[in-house]
Amino acid sequence: MTSVVSNIAPADAERAFQVVLRAFERDPMARWSFPDAQTYHDHFPVVIRALGGRSFAQGGAHEVDGYAGVALWLPPGVEPDHETLEALMTTSDPTPLQREVAAVVEQMAHYHPPEPHWFLPFIAVDPAHQHKGHGSTLLAHALRQCDRDHLPAYLESSNLANIPLYQRHGFEVLGTIQVGSSPPLTPMLRKAR
Fold this sequence. Notes:
Layout: E1 5-7, H1 13-23, H2 28-33, H3 37-52, E2 61-64, E3 69-74, H4 82-89, H5 96-111, E4 118-125, H6 134-149, E5 153-157, H7 163-168, E6 172-173, E7 186-190
Parallel strand pairs: 4-5
Antiparallel strand pairs: 1-2, 2-3, 3-4, 5-7, 6-7
Helix pairs in contact: 1-3, 3-4
C-alpha cells in the first residue's frame, strides 16, 4: 500500500497537535522540560502551537495516512511564535530548570541558518503507527518542495535515535546543544539542492 500525504487545513490543526502530543510523550527533551505527566499535558500543547502553529496557513502542515503522522514545516520568512514561548518560560522566580531551558533555547538560535530555509519544528508519528516508514514519507514529501525551491532545510533533533533517519534524507549534524541536566539537542541542516 502506498502512503498518502495531504496538506492539513487550519481547521484541522488540533487533530495534528494531538498527534504531536502523543508522539512526544517519551521524547527526551520534551519530558526533561516538562517532567511530570500533568505538566507535560498542560504546557507542551502551548509549545507545539507556538513552534508549529503557523505552518497550517502556509501550506507547511502535512499528514500521512489519516494522521498516522504529521510534519509541521515553517517556510522561509515565517517564524515561530517567540512571544508565546518566552511567556511560557518566564516567571517572576525562575526555577533552575527554567534557566537551563532558556539557555538551550538561546543556543538553538545560534544554529538557525541566516539564509532563507524551511524549518521543521515537529515531525511526529503516532506511537501506534511508528516504524512503518511514515516519518520517512513525510520527510521525502516536504524535501521535494525544498529541492524545487533550491532551499536548505533545518531541524533540531530532540531524540538521538532519530538522527540516522534525518541523515538518510541528507541532513548533516551541525553540533550538539547540551546545558546542565538537559538531554542533547542536535541541530541539523540539509543543504539546498
